[in-house]
Design brief:
6-stranded mixed β-sheet; alpha/beta; 12% strand
Length: 257
């Protein structure tokens, strides 16, 4: 039996992930979000909303979930993310320009509103057709900032993709106001919005029970975090602490298609 001392890795000052903030620790609630995202994509769901209060790690959770999705479906699978902007007076030109810019298009600022919309639709079709997938996943962060006109412009883009036989899943991530927005759309019978972007609901939870905290304590010193990776690994399937009761409380579906 070896009694060699355990040597901690040598990490230069200022470069440890804890110091730089460049890390994401896997938690059971994050795993449940990843599982729901995979289910929506695999089942070709039209859209979903994911809600959590501020500072719950939604943005980092998106990056982690995108990596997991690509690990399962392939690195070339088209998953695009964007951040919703807060505009007091939203316009089509500004909306499409913001999307083009977030998605990395080099000509985001040029042309009229209609030209930017056509450019965005063409870009999304091209992305969806990589390796003949004919599918696209769009994930929008800070989605509580979207106003009704912006949802209508998203509907236009969704319809453009549908005309090209692109199966699109739109996931909107934001604060709990998103649920109130969905309720308001349902009350106003704006099902063209609800049925495309708000069919499913996942409430992103923090660490909330003894099992969640026990798992986190047990993996907080994982080698991946100490070596400077961006995320600690997901445990094997059998090692997750997910419980059916928790999952049912977090996830909801509306039967609108």
């Amino acid at each position: 039996m070896s009694h060699a001392p355990h040597l901690r890795p040598s990490v230069p000052s200022g470069t440890h992930p804890i110091e730089t903030g460049r890390y994401t620790l896997f938690t059971p609630p994050l795993g449940r979000f990843c599982d729901d995202l995979k289910n929506w994509v695999n089942n070709r769901a039209a859209g979903a909303i994911v809600t959590a209060p501020p500072r719950f790690g939604k943005s980092k959770g998106i990056r982690f979930a995108v990596d997991e999705l690509r690990e399962e479906l392939g690195a070339a699978f088209p998953v695009l993310t964007f951040c919703c902007q807060d505009h007091q007076y939203p316009t089509e030109a500004r909306f499409f320009e913001s999307l083009l810019s977030d998605l990395g298009h080099s000509l985001s600022h040029r042309g009229t509103a209609s030209a930017k919309r056509a450019r965005l639709a063409q870009f999304l079709v091209q992305q969806a057709c990589v390796d003949h997938h004919q599918r696209l996943v769009l994930i929008g962060d800070e989605a509580q900032k979207l106003q009704e006109p912006q949802y209508k412009w998203l509907v236009d883009i969704y319809n453009d993709l549908d005309r090209h036989d692109i199966a699109t899943t739109v996931v909107l991530v934001g604060q709990p106001e998103l649920v109130h927005q969905r309720d308001a759309f349902e009350k106003a019978k704006k099902m063209q919005i609800v049925g495309r972007f708000m069919v499913h609901l996942h409430q992103f939870a923090g660490l909330r029970n003894q099992k969640d905290f026990a798992y986190r304590r047990g993996s907080g010193n994982s080698d991946s975090v100490l070596s400077g990776s961006l995320a600690s690994p997901r445990p094997p399937r059998g090692g997750d602490t997910k419980e059916r009761g928790d999952e049912e409380n977090e996830t909801e579906s509306r039967g609108h298609v």
